[in-house]
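Section handout 9: paired folding examples.
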Amino acid sequence: MFNHEHFEELCAIAASGQISEPDFVELRDHLQQCADCQSTYNEFIDLLHDKLPLAHPDVVGSSKLPGFVPTPSS
């Protein structure tokens, strides 16, 4: 069983762009097999990069990590 609290924290840190390389590797590997944590990571990205900038329009840039979460196929 996974410690999802740990991975939720890593999702928040990754979304903010402050994740260490070892934590990044651990999170990336976990996200490849856990849909719940993929959703959590996407929610943090949405909050930090789509909603928060609306409150502070001067905030630009993104710490989205390429290849972190597979893109849904259509």
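Moving on to protein 2 of 2.
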Amino acid sequence: MKNQKLFFLMIILAGFFTGCKDTFIEKRTYDANVPEYMSYDEMRKPVKSSAATEIDVQGKIYIKDNYLYINEKYKGIHVFDNSNPANPLNITTLWIPGNVDFAIVDHYLYADSYVDLVVIDISDLEAPREVARLQDIFPYTIPELPEGNYSYPISSIDQSKGVITGWKVQTITEEIDGYEHPVYFYDMGLNSFAKMESNISGGGGGNSVTQTVGIGGSLARFIINNGQFYGLNQTDMQVIDVATPENPTIGTKIALQRIAETVFIEGNYLFIGTQTGMLVYDISNPSSPAYVSEYNHFQSCDPVVVQDGYAYVTERAGNRCGNWQNLMEVIDINVITNPQLVQSYSMTEPWGLGIDNNKLFVCDGAAGLKIYDATDKLRIDQHLLKTFTDVTAHDVIPMGNVLILLAADGIYQYDYSNLNNITLISQI
């Protein structure tokens, strides 16, 4: 009988505590990073231009015909007349909310605007005309926190309010179940709440002034070829048919199973730089990229450029990608189904890179811009032609003996027609 009473008492107590759980509400007050929103209607107003404005913080770079396009992250694109690289002229600004990446074919510019892809007719740069928009084609963007805000948690995010344009620290009070312990955090190591950097594309050389397709740097996420747009989208690649710019058609989405950061085209192949290696896709059928092979490495940020049967990859340590090595690697892709490492070279803080007829340009961060003769793949480090240590180098576009460099403090252009006398010719 005694055991029976104890049993019933335990049941009653269990029921009591279980019932109380639903009514135990706790108020918590704390300082947090609170999102600032722009409504979707505001974000989707037609793209406009203005007279030339100064660049606050330069983003990705792109060259098309005689024009140099410079992104200002989340704001838009500054356009320079670069017909004389020694004297680039700031001519107009395209205001595109949430813009980070873009690509140009003929006189159409394809740009991300937060979650949308917009197509803009830029035949008249002073009067750009938005001709198409694909809504919600990209993931919801959660921008990085301002410096100094990392110690504060992030409050709840309501995507229905619009896109996030920034953060402000506020004291908030919320009611939560006292038995629940929600965790708010900002992962400084992996930058969990930041939009993927992405990055800047082509990096190849060439002498043509008039181009059908423009050229980006080695950090680009967007590239266009044979009427198809290829856009990296965190762990996916989205294909869009842009043969008719006013009526782009969403194509296949390819799951890459990795965090993809950069894309480069050489011949009939796409080379995708991911945080854990390089992926190769066959685009002989442009609308249906087919997996071919991969080259794997330790987790890192991984821009890649390709020329004449070799891929050049940089891997950078001490960043959100998690790598512990600073390397530039040369990979033999002559047998495209079986990429093979040829040689690894130690670097200081490698970012983007470019290649033009065995002239290899490596952005080594605070260690500057390094220019090599890459003819001998096994001894590239023994053939350093020039180092510019007065710049913190991030990405490059070599084209027609003019090198366009994206640095931490601006855009530099160098004349490398004479390898014995590579000279700075202008700075923005």
